[in-house]
Amino acid sequence: MIFISISRKELEKKFKRNLIGDAAKKLFAVNLFETVTVEDIAREAEFGKGTLYQYFENKEDILVFVLHRGIGEVCDEIKSRCLEEKDVTKSIQELIRVYYEFLTIYKNLFISFVRWQIEGSLPSHMVEMVTKRHQEKIGLMCQVVERGIKEGVLIDVESKLLVQSIERCINGFNLSFITADQDADDQEKRIEFIKEILFKGILS
Predict the structure, then answer these.
(1) DSSP characters over 107-147
(2) Closest-CA residue to 175 (of 165, 164, 167)
(3) Which of 65, 74, 69 is nearest to 102 (CA)?
(4) How far is it, in rounded angstroms, from Cα 129 to Cα 132?
(5) Selection from 81, 100, 80 nearest residue 198 by Cα
(6) Looking at residue 32, which CATH number applies to its domain?
(7) What are the start-end ranges of the H helices in the chain?
């Protein structure tokens, strides 16, 4: 067994980066990225503004950190809540729920990230970090979908195409409520409605 030694300084750095990331995530979940300032994040994290710059270069660096970490967390959720579920139909339904919950929190950040990616205003290494983690998520979603295809629950088409269809349905539905508050009951109704549309279509 190989033990990796982590210094106290490295642990402290990781801890504080995560605290700052948690504060930023909370603010970005309910505000557009452009309206949140470094001062806002520092205040939410209960740090001085100067402390933030010890751990992140700028606000964009914080965005990439939060997105990269968030996609990693949703990958773990897909593994535990979907791939370990023996019932294929429940596994696919849970995938819809996991992705919807993820997008509800991170949609504002994705909008900014995609825009910057199109404009070419983010450093390539930042784009590569998030893109690589996103591809990992797509791969896990494909594994869930492939089980559904194999067992005849889903139509027999390329798994990546089905994953894109699921993503775009949820993206469009979720982003249409970008300026609206979603309470728990509303969110649950929307998740169930998306399941209904994806599994049964819109015909009566």
Answers:
(1) HHHHHHHHHHHHHT-S-HHHHHHHHHHHHHHHHHHHHHHHH
(2) 167
(3) 74
(4) 5
(5) 100
(6) 1.10.10.60
(7) 8-30, 38-45, 49-55, 59-77, 88-119, 124-150, 159-175, 184-200
Instruction: Pick the closest to residue 74 from 4, 144, 149 (CA basis).
Output: 144
> How big is the CA angle at 193 (ends 107 and 73), to the nearest 5 degrees?
40
pLDDT attached to residue 10:
86
Q: How far apart are the first and last CA of the chain?
A: 59
pLDDT (0 to 100) of residue 64: 94
Taking Cα atoms as reference points, which of 93, 69, 71 lies closest to residue 82? 93
Token representation of residue 85: 């579920």
Instruction: Supply the DSSP symbol for 68.
Output: H
110 phi-psi bin (left φ>0, alpha ψ -120 to 50, beta other) = alpha
Length of the chain: 204
Same domain, 52 and 73: no
Q: Are residues 21 and 90 in the same domain?
A: no
**In this structure, are 74 and 33 located in the same domain?**
no
Residue ranges in the chain whose pLDDT is less than 50: 178-180
What is the Cα–Cα distance from 41 to 27, expressed in whole angstroms? 7
Positive or negative, the CA dihedral 50, 51, 53, 59 is: negative
Tens digits of per-residue pLDDT, 52-70? 999 999 999 999 999 999 9
